[in-house]
Amino acid sequence: MIKIGVILIYSKDYHKKQLCHCLTGEVVGGPDQVPVKNVKVIFRKKVVDRTNEEGGFSFTVTDDVDRLTVTFQDPADQFFDTTLTMPFQRGRTVFHRIVLQKEDPPVTFDSSKDLRVQLGHTGDNMAELELPADNLLLKDGKPFKGKLKTLSL
């Protein structure tokens, strides 16, 4: 395999050349945009690569397409999964910088007290959730008493 802008793959069985195009980039996250390692790069429901220590990734695209929809999934759950449709130029190696948003920490609350939580990511709250005290019920219909921890909102 030779990698100079475009990757050439030679098939030993048929002695044919097949031209492949490459999508490369880096995945960074958080306000400091630090490289994020081990992020799954998913294309057409298949993991095609994982980011390295520097957040770098690369995979070949053999299809004749102008756009690629790719999902970036952080197995450590420090960052939100991100799906992007990116422009793709045939015959070129295309580089993209992917910036992941940090997940908000869970909120612990007491079910016997009123709760108000901003929905959305830090800085761009879309709405507010208001949960009155003693409003969470068990399967038998009785109020739940105790502390709970939310997931990312």
Describe this structure in words.
This protein is an all-beta fold. The chain has no helices and 14 strands. It has strands spanning 2-4, 6-11, 16-29, 34-35, 40-43, 46-50, 56-61, 67-73, 82-87, 94-100, 108-110, 115-121, 124-131, 147-149. The strands form 4 sheets. Strands 1, 2, 3, 4, 7 and 10 form a 6-stranded mixed sheet that branches. It has a 4-stranded antiparallel sheet with strand order 6-5-8-9, with no helix packed on it. A hairpin with a 4-residue loop joins strand 3 and strand 4. Mean pLDDT is 79; it is low at 1-18.
The gist of it:
By secondary structure, this protein is mainly β. It has strands at 2-4, 6-11, 16-29, 34-35, 40-43, 46-50, 56-61, 67-73, 82-87, 94-100, 108-110, 115-121, 124-131, 147-149.
Task: Provide tags for this entry.
153 residues; mainly beta; four-stranded antiparallel β-sheet; 53% strand
Q: How would you summarize the topology of this molecule?
A:
Elements lengths: L1 E3 L1 E6 L4 E14 L4 E2 L4 E4 L2 E5 L5 E6 L5 E7 L8 E6 L6 E7 L7 E3 L4 E7 L2 E8 L15 E3 L4
Parallel strand pairs: 3-10
Antiparallel strand pairs: 1-2, 2-3, 3-4, 3-7, 5-6, 5-8, 8-9, 11-14, 12-13
